[in-house]
Amino acid sequence: MPPAALSVHLSIGQAYAWSVFKPPLESALHLDGTQSALPFQLAIVMLGLSAAFGGTFVERNGPRWAMTVALICFSSGFLISALGAQTQQFWLIVLGYGFVGGIGLGIGYISPVSTLIKWFPDRPGMATGIAIMGFGGGALIASPWSAQMLDSFGTGHSGIALAFLVHGLAYAVFMSLGVFLVRVPRTAKPVADAPSAFEGVQVSARSAVRTPQFWCLWIVLCMNVTAGIGILEKAAPMITDFFADTSTPVSVSAAAGFVALLSAANMAGRIGWSSASDLIGRKNIYRVYLGVGALMYLLIALFGDTAKPLFVLCALVILSFYGGGFATIPAYLKDLFGTYQVGAIHGRLLTAWSTAGVLGPLIVNWIADRQESAGKHGSSLYTLSFSIMIGLLVVGFIANEFVRPVNARHHHVPAPREAADAQRQQPA
Amino acid sequence: MPSDSSPPDRRGLIVLSWVWVGAPLVYGVYQLVQKATQLFTG
């Protein structure tokens, strides 16, 4: 099951490498930076929407159906984009990669989550950490691979079209492993003495969104992601600005190395911290993400420009918490709402990601621009936004403290036939 | 995977599937390490 999940997440994680296509598209189709970002932005919006609204269908039809839909949408998104690039119709690229491909992202992102939790009921954090680590790892593969492809095919519209075509076909083949391998466990426990996936509290997606626990976790995820994106989105100019006036300025290539290290921390945090949550508990691990994260921001704000290792270390810890927050949330949802519709609940919670995706960059970029206009420079461009991030993390910390077990009136009592269906699942 | 009868030997499939997803990931991590070292050398 983990390779099946990884094959999907490593593919759809390509979304984070969209920036590779931006400069060639801008020169080939005469676009500006805002326009060339449109396919990616629409894809992220569609990710949140399709995860939120498609979660129930994923639960109803099973992971193989979901992975098939993800494969078809994600791959055909590239194929439509290839047509758009070849005919120089940018709207086709927006429609293909952004709209159709974005649906593939959302359905693909949630497709293995509840199944993994059912396979590993005793280690849900580790199980979902593996898959969601794949989403972080997808960009590591796609970024150099896409760049090499564009070098070979050329950066004209025909070269881009060919690159999109190869991406669509290659990802279809790669994701087919997931469709082929994915299985929902039968009722027997996969591990001796492990708790059954179908025991304990079960809450439907419809009921879950009516509980304060869901909205507390929504705030927790939104604040944690906002804090991480705040650094991730502006990492290269940020480290350059921080040390511009010092005796050890950061070069362009060193800043690129910093961005790469952040990606590694993001990916490692997804599997590392999420697995740790199985040992120390979900509430405690979010106390670490949010509490220690705020402390790291404080250290950067106070002493970041005095020592490069301190700045880098704090940023890496924050990004590892960012990844960990993403990967641990499905297990937190499972603890609170059970496995009954955890995929659908997870999908609805991902709207917090879409919100944070707008909020984080907005805070950092807008404040940095305003500070620059006011004549400030260096690390002082970011002091205010870091203070806001600390405040947001504290809000998330408080929301986490309000998370309590779900009231029994929200618990789902399955009808006899429904219970039998749930137990039967989908044998191979 | 649990089964009523003796389970089929899936070791080959498991190895193949891990290689399938592991090989591109190793490639990505290798590229990342090369880039990340620029922070200390660049």
Describe the oligomeric state of these chains in a short phrase.
Answer: heterodimer
How many strands, which pairing sense, and closed or not: the largest β-sheet of chain A? Answer: none
Q: What is the mean predicted local confidence, pLDDT of chain B? A: 78
The CATH class label of the largest domain in chain A is Mainly Alpha
Instruction: Give the helix/strand class of chain B.
Output: mainly alpha
Class per helix and strand makeup of chain A:
mainly alpha
Specify the number of helices of chain B: 2
The coarse silhouette of chain A is globular
Helix content class of chain B = over 70%
Uncertain segments of chain A: 188-195, 422-428
Instruction: Please tell me the CATH architecture of the largest domain in chain A by its name.
Output: Up-down Bundle
Percent range for β-strand residues of chain A: under 5%
Q: End-to-end span of chain B in angstroms?
A: 50 Å
Short structural summary:
The complex is a heterodimer of chains A (about 425) and B (about 40). Chain A contains 18 helices and no strands.
List keywords for this structure.
heterodimer, A: 428 residues, Growth Hormone, Chain: A, globular, B: mainly alpha, 71% helix, 0% strand, rod-shaped
Topology:
The complex is a heterodimer of chains A (428) and B (42).
Chain A: H1 2-12, H2 22-29, H3 33-61, H4 63-86, H5 90-110, H6 113-119, H7 124-153, H8 157-181, H9 205-208, H10 212-232, H11 235-242, H12 252-280, H13 282-303, H14 308-337, H15 342-349, H16 351-373, H17 383-401, H18 416-424
Chain B: H1 11-36, H2 38-41
